[in-house]
Specification:
Strand content: under 5%
Number of helices: 21
Distance between the termini: 18 Å
Structural class: mainly alpha
Order of helices and strands: HHHHHHHHHHHHHHHHHHHHH
């Protein structure tokens, strides 16, 4: 167990280090693109397609990558068969997008959406170059190699996004950048873990992988769909400008939260898979990873909650974004910050259920979420749209997601016989530290009502983060030194 704990700690540390670099680069590129090159309308068009990209990734993978991590009975023939199976699926999906993409563009009265989806279909075929070796690196807990590959690829994406936007490919810059990232990631992963498939295809050998993987893939696809349906609903009911404003808020809040949480999620699934027969160890590991996820996610969402108006006015106010649009964006971002807490907790449930070999339970949760969350989006748009405009959909997040989260919490607790009291005892301290830091931030804001945006941003965010850092270090014994030591 000590050896596994060390690997987990090193994995989180490496993943966190890589994610920090990726997050900073992505933030800078997103700011540069949206401030200098993209209008709210163009951003709205792009983000009517972009939220579906990750769902397409999971469909193309068919979940067999997760099977490679969860199962231990690999042979070269089986792994090669998995590769050819994925290639067939991604090729078929590309062909399907040739018809479905234009249909979606016609429904939304924006033909470019169809071409964006077709172009991304090319990326689905390309990702086969890294899918198998990437899964094997995760199974082997080689998170240092993964971190190096991800940093290289995502830096390429961030730079490419700005270059393409500056060249005039405004609506297309995210899609082109994703293609560039895939090429570089494939090269980097192949260097770290070379893989060449054998010319063999044995359907019977891959059957168990597909059986497990399809349930996992279905869960991932449903997750991406229910978390992405806010975009087409806003586009349909309120138009491209409204979606552009909402997309900016989403890119500031929910996308970074997902990116930050991936630090722990990347480590969680293979770790839970290793411990799948030991319920007590699973519970203890869930507490540890929940603490890490809260520490990673909550300070960020707290800063956004406290100073998002100042951030928007300092960086985005100009020719492309008006003060009114930014005020709407700030309201949306603050509403979405509420979801940061629930998602910090909820992200760990699916990898735990999949890791212990219960993907059917993850699927049940995803079905509940797919009904509750998009249903709340649609209800919010219809009932509250006249009063709140697109904010009605942001408010709906706070209605639908807690329902889905409750279902997930029940399934996790029942599956591993979780001691809920011990779980709360192990995690409430981190939440309390962040709550106190938030209160100090609001107090600082009230004390500086007439200060400049720069002063307010530095003072409010600085006081909140300093309080959280001191409390985590003195009360929870979590310091930069303890985190850095995990890399050694």
């Amino acid at each position: 167990m000590a050896s596994l704990d060390t690997k987990v700690a090193r994995g989180v540390a490496w993943a966190a280090s890589a994610q920090a670099v990726i997050a900073v680069a992505d933030l800078i590129s997103q700011i540069a693109v949206t401030v200098f090159f993209i209008s709210p309308s163009d951003l709205g068009i792009a983000f009517a397609a972009i939220p579906f990209y990750t769902a397409l990734d999971y469909i193309a993978d068919a979940g067999v990558g997760a099977s490679l991590i969860q199962r231990d009975d690999h042979t070269p023939e089986r792994i090669s068969t998995v590769f050819w199976f994925n290639l067939l699926i991604s090729g078929a999906l590309f062909v399907a997008l040739l018809g479905l993409g234009p249909l979606y563009g016609w429904i939304q009265d924006a033909p470019v959406l169809g071409w964006l989806l077709i172009a991304y279909g090319g990326k689905l075929i390309l990702q086969n170059a890294y899918a198998i070796p990437f899964a094997l690196l995760r199974k082997e807990l080689r998170f240092d190699a993964i971190a190096k590959a991800r940093v290289t690829a995502h830096l390429t994406e961030s730079i490419s996004r700005v270059v393409f936007a500056a060249m005039g490919a405004t609506v297309w810059c995210w899609t082109f950048a994703a293609l560039a990232r895939s090429v570089v990631f494939a090269i980097a992963v192949q260097i770290q873990r070379p893989f060449a498939p054998k010319l063999v295809f044995q359907p019977r050998e891959v059957g168990p992988y597909i059986k497990f993987g399809l349930r996992t893939a279905a869960s991932n696809v449903l997750y991406q769909l229910y978390t992405s349906m806010d975009a087409p609903i806003i586009f349909h009911f309120f138009g491209r400008q409204a979606l552009g404003i909402y997309a900016l808020a989403d890119s500031i809040v929910l996308e970074p939260v997902k990116m930050i949480a991936n630090v722990v999620i990347d480590v969680a699934f293979p770790t839970f898979a290793r411990l799948r027969t030991d319920t007590r160890a699973l519970g203890a590991q869930l507490v540890k990873l929940t603490r890490l996820n809260l520490i990673a996610v909550l300070p960020y969402t707290i800063v956004v909650l406290l100073v998002i108006p100042e951030i928007l006015r300092l960086f985005w106010l100009g020719d492309n974004w008006s003060a009114t649009e930014l005020a709407w964006c700030a309201d949306a971002a603050r509403i979405l910050c509420v979801m940061g807490f629930f998602r910090a907790l909820g992200f760990l449930g699916p990898p735990l259920l999949d890791g212990v070999g219960k993907p059917e339970l993850t699927l049940r949760y995803m079905i509940v979420a797919t009904i509750a969350v998009p249903g709340s989006f649609l209800l919010g748009a219809v009932v509250l749209g006249d009063q709140l405009w697109f904010l009605s959909v942001a408010v709906a997040w706070a209605i639908g997601y807690p329902i889905a989260f409750a279902a997930l919490a029940y399934l996790v607790a029942r599956t591993i016989e979780l001691d809920v009291t011990a779980y709360l005892r192990g995690t409430w301290g981190v939440i309390a530290c962040c709550a106190i830091g938030t209160a100090i931030g609001f107090a600082t804001s009230a004390a500086l009502p007439n200060a400049s945006d720069v002063v307010r941003l530095l003072a409010i965010a600085g006081s909140a983060l300093a309080a959280i850092g001191v409390l985590l270090g003195t009360w929870q014994k979590i310091t930069p030194r303890s985190i850095a030591s995990a890399l050694r």
